[in-house]
Amino acid sequence: MLKIVLLTTAALLGGCAGVDVSSYKDERPQLRLEEYFNGTLDAWGMFQQRDGKVVKRFRVVIEARWEEESGILDERFIYSDGTIQQRIWTITRNGADSYTGTAGDVVGVASGRFSGNSLHWRYTLRLPVDSSVYEVQFDDWMYLQEDGVMINRSVMKKFGVRLGEVTLFFRKRS
Questions:
Q1: How many domains does the chain have?
Q2: What pTM, to 2 d.p., does this model score?
């Protein structure tokens, strides 16, 4: 019975409407993915469990390039435990305010919308943990700041239950 109550509550809470990216339309600096994610970027991040405990820290070097409406983001992660991981995104602009993306460990297609200084990105990721791989959903928000800094906050869920958060800070190299 408790399991049914928990699943029902998670489904109801997961269905609640959140902030629409268009509410950031007047925020500056204006985010243009083709400009920001072009060249080399550095990022630093951490994963926090739902209780707030930091369980993983990492650094990312991103080599990015665009040709017309399509971009490649080659991300190389170096985790605090020495683990190294690579993710290569192919991003495509699909109109005035939207993008889609694919990567080897992303299930299906990621979708995102942008407005003002913000990008809202959603996707399902195959996440290796020990000897298993789990499919988890990411609700990802990026906010461009002055001086080439971007803040990224992602909530990670499975079956609608919040597992934790990923926080990243990007800086574009000069």
A1: 1
A2: 0.87
